[in-house]
Amino acid sequence: MLKAMGERLAAASLMAFTAVVTYEAPSRPGPALAYPSISEVLMQRLDKLRVITLCHGPASEFYYDGKTMTDYSPAENLIAVAAAPPTLDAALKAAFESAAIYFPFADAVLADTYRNIAEGQTNAFYIGLSKVVVGTVTDMLVYVNDAVFVQI
Q: Based on the domain organization, do 139 and 99 belong to the same domain?
């Protein structure tokens, strides 16, 4: 099922979706605190990406056009621009390595989603069906490696 999903995502030349992500951080008494964020994502292969994120903390906007990466923080009215590699995969890697910019949903927009998910995978399993995505029936899966536990 993960392979079929990866092939379908890789075949998409244009994608728009809303990513809902929950980050966890330790609290003083011990149990994790959950911080929600919502990102509006627009991607066009091979070299365009727009991510507008609203979250518990400051909002942010990220733009990539095949030549430059731009990160904008509206609350601070601060913008950072850097030269970027010519492909989306390389740009996302460069954004992380140079500025710690990371998108938890990056696997969905990479050129080979399945390879990125399967690499180092230690476990994967099927949870069941969901009807919460705008009335569409979707399959829920989990995959695990040494660094992440992902439910999609």
A: no
Residues 56 and 37 in one domain: yes
How confident is the model over 12-34, as pLDDT tens digits? 999 999 998 888 888 999 999 98
The predicted model scores a pTM of: 0.85
Whether residue 94 is found in the same domain as residue 129: no
Q: Are residues 71 and 47 in the same domain?
A: yes
φ, ψ of residue 80 to 5 degrees: the values are: -125, 130
**Residue 82: both structure tokens together:** 């850097």
Range of the domain at 6: 2-24+33-111
CB 44 within 8 A of CB 14: yes
Query: Per the structure, how many domains does the chain have?
Result: 2
Do residues 39 and 89 share a domain?
A: yes
